UniProtKB/TrEMBL annotation:
Tree of life domain: Eukaryota
Name the UniProt record assigns to this protein: U2A'/phosphoprotein 32 family A C-terminal domain-containing protein
SUPFAM superfamilies assigned to the protein according to its UniProt record, in alphabetical order: L domain-like (SSF52058)
InterPro entries in the cross-refs: LRMDA, LRR_dom_sf
């Protein structure tokens, strides 16, 4: 079996693109556009867990995204955030927002009634 040089390996990776990209645990407040925009055609899963994103974060338009994890950030306005997601990721199927103020649950001190209200608002926003 012939080994690829670093340059050849890099070309193959760029040609194939990434399907999953993680920026978890980076303390980010803004999307790293330079890294993400190189993957607009192939990127399917975006991991933004444990950062400092707010409800007003702006994403690039990426129809290839089907799943995003943005758990444990500072998202507190569900309608604003969901509208941005709906406009920029039209093919998204999975959105994980656990441990954000906008997604109340037992994990972040939310009550059962808050959780039910959140789920109802989320369903209305996506439909």
């Amino acid at each position: 079996m012939e080994l690829q040089t670093t340059a050849e390996h890099k070309q193959v990776n760029q040609a194939l693109g990434f399907h999953w990209l993680s920026f978890a645990y980076q303390g980010l407040t803004e999307i790293p556009y330079d890294s993400i925009l190189m993957q607009t055609d192939t990127l399917e899963v975006l991991d933004l867990n444990c950062n400092n994103y707010t409800s007003h974060v702006k994403f690039p338009y990426m129809p290839s995204i089907t799943a995003m994890c943005i758990n444990k950030n500072k998202i507190n306005n569900l309608p604003v955030f969901v509208e941005e997601i709906r406009r920029k990721f039209p093919n998204i199927k999975v959105l994980s927002m656990m441990n954000n103020e906008a997604a109340p649950s037992y994990f972040n001190g939310g009550s059962l009634s808050q959780y039910i209200d959140y789920r109802e608002r989320e369903e209305e926003d996506w439909c």
